[in-house]
Every structure is written in structure tokens, then in C-alpha cells.
Amino acid sequence: MSNEELVCAAQNGCAECFGELVDRCAPGLLAFLHHRTGSVEDAEDLVQDTFVRVYLKLNQFDGRSKFTTWLYTIARNLAASRFGRKTLLRLSTNLISPYPGPEDILGMAQLRRSLWSVARTLPRNQYEALWLRYAQDMSIKDIAGVMSRSGVSVKVMLHRARINMAKKLRRRRMAEGASDTIDWKTGESLHESSGA
User: Fold this and answer.
1) How far apart are CA 174 and CA 127, in angstroms?
2) Would you tell me how many other CB atoms lie within 10 Å of the CB of residue 151?
3) Burial (CB count within 10 angstroms: exposed 0-12, middle 13-18, buried 19+), residue 58
4) Quick one: what percent of the chain has pLDDT higher than 90?
């Protein structure tokens, strides 16, 4: 069953279907909220509060968007209400997430950790758009719904975030003494050594 079919059954009183929705969606939602708050404990509390809110308002889900878009919007709003919009992403740059990173962007684990470390220094909306796109694998349309933006705005935000990330990563590598160029998508060195 799709999430939307489970919602329909839950709206008709099927507690098991709501439990299945929680089982399916809680891990990704926890990762999203952990990255928004910087605290596993706060994220766990917000996940619980989000699902309580979803259960109480389940009859308001009308299927015009995906269930996950509606769920993440509720979670995002609860996090903003609880922690304030300005303080949400004041994360330590040495925080390494226990959740999977975007392996399809950077193939090497060290660069992946470096990417999210640098991403935390981006403006909050750019970081959030990157996280939803690459860590949560959301579509542009779904991200637009979660962030209350147009699809074009999300595409522009992601484009700017990628440009800012490339600049920041290039500066970091130069500061570390690396003179070669890294392919942003694969994480592989583009530097060809002469004669070796």
C-alpha cells in the first residue's frame, strides 16, 4: 500500500495502517529533524509531537499533496515554533550525522562528511533544501511544499547552494594544501599527475 492508501485507511479507523505510516516515515523524519535541531533528543521529541499532531489532524489530509510533504511541513513548523526560526540551525561544524549522507553526490566518505559539515554553514534555507533533496530524496515539488516555496524558487535555492558549496569546498581544500580539483558529483580527483 502507498502512504496515501494507508492514510485513507487510517482516516477510516485502521490503527494498524497509521502504525505502518509511523514505521515507514519516522526514520527519515528523525534524520530531518536531527539536522534541523542538532540534537537527537529534541528531534525524537519533535517526531513524537509531529505524529501526535498528524493523528489528531488526519481527517484534514485531503490528498492534494503527498503524505510525506504534509508530514514534513507539520514537522518543520513544529520545529520552528519550538526553537524559533533563527536558532534552528546553529549546529556545531564538527557534528557528524549517524544517518546516511548523499553518497550519490560524493562517493568518498571523507568528502561526504566534509560536505555536510560545510553545508551547515550555508544559509538555513539552502541547507534545508539540500538536505531534503539529497538526504531525504524528495522531489522539487515535495520540497516546495515543505518549504512553502515555488518549484522555481527551490531550483534556484538548490543551484545557489551547490555553487556556494563548491566555492566553500574549494576554499577548504586549498586551505588544507590540496592543489587538485575535485569532481563535485563523484568526489574523485580530476588532477592528472604528470609523468606518473
Assistant:
1) 23
2) 14
3) middle
4) 10
Select 1-88's CATH number: 3.40.50.720, 1.20.1250.20, 3.40.630.30, 1.10.1740.10.
Answer: 1.10.1740.10
3-class SS of residue 192? coil
Could you tell me which residue, 9 or 180, shows the higher pLDDT? 9
C-alpha cell, 38: 542538532
| DSSP structure string for 115-138 | HHHHHTTS-HHHHHHHIIIIIS--
Contact 42, 33 (CB under 8 A): yes
State residue 114's pLDDT score: 63
Cβ neighbours around 187 below 10 Å, total: 18
Domain ranges of the chain: 1-88, 97-189
SS3 189: strand
Provide the grid cell at 71.
Answer: 508530514
For the whole model, what pTM was predicted? 0.56
Q: Helices (DSSP H) in 132-192: which residue ranges?
A: 140-147, 151-175
Which cell is 58 given? 488526519
Q: Is residue 77 within 8 Å of 85, Cβ to Cβ? A: no
CATH of the structural domain 97-189, one choice from 3.40.50.720, 1.10.10.10, 3.10.410.10, 3.30.300.10: 1.10.10.10
Amino acid at 125: N
